[in-house]
Amino acid sequence: ATASSASTQMNGVLCNPGENMRKYSSYTSLETANSCLDSSLVWEAATNRIGEWVQLDLGRQRVIRGVVTQGVHDSDDGVTQFAVHHSDDGRHWRVVPAQVGHKGPVCVPFRG
Questions:
Q1: Is residue 31 within 8 Å of residue 37, measured between CB atoms?
Q2: Helix/strand/coil for 109
Q3: DSSP line for 9-52
Q4: CA-CA distance, 79 to 35, in Å (whole number)?
Q5: Which residue positions in the chain have pLDDT lower than 50?
Q6: Of 8, 65, 75, 89, which residue is most buried, by most CB within 10 angstroms?
Q7: Using one digit for the tens of pLDDT, what is the confidence trace for 74-98?
Q8: What is the model's pLDDT at position 110?
């Protein structure tokens, strides 16, 4: 299963919301329900299939310039591809074109 940490960038400032501001499609155990950057824990989906997701609530509307992912410390495990969707209300989602094919800490700026 994919293991990762995730955060967003706003005007060069890293926004790394706490676990209380994150939701997951699934996870293997409570220890794998964590996606904060630089945490000793990581999010690991219960299954390794397309459609698993992490949702970050930034608390208010913000201008987001990119996404940062980070794999498991001392491991080759990590996100190899992802899609970004955004919502103003948590119910209606729009796609933002962004993908990555790297392991390790990666910052992906949004186009436009």
A1: no
A2: strand
A3: EETTEEE---GGGEEES--SSGGG----TT-SS-EE-SS-STT-
A4: 12
A5: 1-3, 102-105, 112
A6: 8
A7: 777 777 777 788 888 888 988 876 5
A8: 53
